[in-house]
Structure formats: C-alpha cells, structure tokens
Amino acid sequence: MLTSQRHALILDRLSRDGQIVATRLALELGLSEDTIRRDLRELAGEGKLKRVHGGALPLSPDLPDLAERETIAADVKQALGRRAAELIAPGMVVFLDGGSTNAAVVAALPRTLKVTIATHSPTIAVALAGHDAEVLLLGGRLYKHSMVATGAGVVEALAALRVDLFFLGATALHPVHGATTGDYEEAQVKRAIAARADATWLLAAEQKFDRVSPHRILPLVALQGLVVPHAMAQARLAPYAEAGLEIVAA
C-alpha cells in the first residue's frame, strides 16, 4: 500500500471511528506499528490530526474567547436560538449554559414568558434582566474564557435544583466521543448540570460536528436531542439520529 493510500485510509477511519489505535490498525493492515506511527506523525505535521499516546484523535476545534465567538455564524446562532426557545414552555425550570449560542436563546425568549432560568453564566443572567423570568445565578470561580462559574460551589448549588431542560454548550460533537469541551473543570460542571436535568439539548452549528475536544462532557446517549441548522445534510446527521437523539432543524 502506497503512503498516500495509507494516509487516506487513516483519515477516513479517523472520521468514521473518532480515533486511531496504532497497534490495532497495524495488525489489521499487516504492517509494522512503526509504519503506522510514522504515518501519524506525518499527518500530524500536516495539521490533519492530533497525535496522542498509542494513536491519534481528530483535531480539536480552536477555542476563541466569548467575544470572538459572538461574531462567528451569528445568523445561524440566531436561528438556533429561536428554535430552541420554542421548546421552552411557561412554568418550566430551564438551565442555560454559557456561550454565544445560548445567548441567542435568551434573545429569542418572549420577555413576558413566566419561567425560571438558572445559569452559571453572569452574561446570560444580565441578558435576562429585562425579562419577567425568575433568574437563578449560581456562583463560583469565573472561567473567563467562557464567562461561566466553575468549581465546587457551582456543583454544591446544583444539589438544590431540578430542571426540566438543560441547554448545554460544547465546543465539539462526535458520534463516538459525544459532546466535548476544552476545559477540564468546565466539563465537570456541565456533567453535574446534566445530572440534574430531565432533558439535555445541544444547539450545534455545523462546524462543531464530527470534531473532538480534549475533555468529554457527555456521551450521545445522555443527550435528549440536537437543534441544528436546517441546511445540514441528512447523511451527516444520520449517526446522531441512529443513536436515538431527537433532531430539530432551525
């Protein structure tokens, strides 16, 4: 097998399986492990994958700060926010994660809607100041990159909550690795919130799909559904639908 053929096969497997295990692939192809490891190094050098101990993972998405994220695909996020807001009924207790997409949910909520919104994001809480909604702001150490509170204080406060809907924020979504993010403590807090929710939904623009960030939040089976752009190809969404997720187009 030519080098170019091996590289193409590796990238195809990485897209399909979400990881490459060097020993397993070498055995399958009847090649030496050194050959596969060399291929992985070369592909990593070309910026096509991320080398890890024993194999490779897809490249993690970049992690721009909140101010920069607010300028990316703003029209798509507004559409996702409007569709997600339609899932919120009067009297519900809803937890809104931080992030620019969930800020679009707030912007789409009717100001007179009688709901309780819990959040660990001060920016989300401030955006709700002009709404009739009851707002519960959970505090802790401020993770400035995402403008959310993290740490034991948030987790302890969650023990007193039971929420109907949790709108989760994530930097990446993959059929094998589920929802992931770039910060270890932030991932822990997100998992703790999901554990207090009857249903967890993720609003995901197309660039988040089939990618993996370093820290796992939840497997796909822990999600209720996805709110996605209406233009996304059904073939790309198929693995998520097959996993049992409800998929709502915006």
Q: Can you walk through the features of this model?
A:
The chain has 250 residues and is α/β, with parallel strands linked by helices. The chain has helices at residues 3-17, 22-29, 33-45, 66-69, 74-85, 100-108, 122-127, 152-158, 184-195, 234-242; strands at residues 20-21, 50-52, 55-57, 93-96, 116-119, 134-137, 141-143, 148-150, 163-168, 172-174, 178-181, 197-203, 215-218, 225-228, 246-249. The strands form 4 sheets. Strands 6-5-4-9-12-14-15 form a 7-stranded parallel beta sheet, sandwiched between helices. A 3-stranded antiparallel beta sheet has the order 1-3-2. Strands 10-11-13 form a 3-stranded antiparallel beta sheet. A hairpin with a 4-residue loop joins strand 7 (141-143) and strand 8 (148-150). The longest helix is centred in the N-terminal third of the chain and has 15 residues, at 3-17.
